[in-house]
Amino acid sequence: MKPKLTDKQARFVEEYLIDLNATQAAIRAGYSEKTARQTGNENLTKPDVAAAIAEAKAKRSERTNVDADWLLKRLASEAEADLADLYYEDGGLKPVHQWPKIWRQGLVAGVEIEQQYEYVDGEKEPAGVVLKVKLSDRTKRLELIGKHVDVQAFKDQLALPAEGVTVVVNRPGGN
What we know:
Blueprint: H1 7-19, H2 22-28, H3 36-45, H4 47-64, H5 68-80, H6 101-107, E1 108-120, E2 123-135, H7 138-146, E3 155-160, E4 165-170
């Protein structure tokens, strides 16, 4: 059964999927800016709105083929990418079109080209070029993998056998 939503609630659902910001979604959906925070939070707690958001997210994942499994595989590929793939054996940087696709899709935050000069007989002359590759934060990828439900690398589990309950405790730094 399809959730029953007002026109504003339906618009809220559409807007919420843009950035998952309930306050901004409420404003963009036409709710008052003064009460947008409260209205956005209230909408998230309404069963019909929550069901519509879940349904829209599921449809989006199906449409884009992006789900938790895809994301975890992608993060693992990025975490394991070898920096040596960007360079020739002599240490020269390969042209971007020769880089493996995984590097071209976000692992490199930028390439800086710096002209080097030297003075010859008092004249400044080009001496070479230094190419600097700026990498994106690979540690963050590992952290995201570690927080994945099945990996749980940053959680400690305490078993309480008397009650048969497992308590999961998050500690900063995973220690």
